[in-house]
Amino acid sequence: QMQLVESGGGLVQPGGSLRLSCAASGFTLDYYAVGWFRQAPGKEREGVSCISSSEGSTYYSDSVKGRLTISRDNAKNTVYLQMNSLKPEDTAVYYCAADVMSTVEAMCVPPLFGTWGQGTQVTVSS
User: Can you give the pLDDT of all 126 residues of the chain as single tens digits?
Assistant: First the structure.
């Protein structure tokens, strides 16, 4: 059974940092593109960052570019999202998702990803 489990969320002050992890079980992440998505109350789920299977391409939304970094450790079957300089508007439930695709350019959108985790809450507040 393919499963993704997110961890690392929590409460952090503005300007702080968090590192989210997305661990896969039941399948090997090596061949999958992985994305991080977020959904704030009353808003649609949006793509934050995606990474291709070979790390050949990455995508960041304009709102997080320069502050968030996506990476993957295939030996640990895990993808990470390092979040720095966090802002209150980053508050949301963060989900990771995986699917097979050769590039993530213009592909980091929820409908294109078939396997999802349960989400982890990130709250940025003083």
Answer: 999 999 999 999 999 999 999 999 999 998 899 999 999 999 999 999 999 987 779 999 999 999 999 999 989 999 999 999 999 999 999 999 999 987 888 889 999 999 999 999 999 999
Q: What are phi and psi of 12, to 5 degrees?
A: -140, 150
Amino acid 65 reads K
Is residue 44 exposed (0-12), middle (13-18) or buried (19+ Cβ within 10 Å)?
exposed
CA 103/CA 124 separation, integer angstroms: 31
- Would you mind telling me the total number of residues written for the chain in this entry? 126
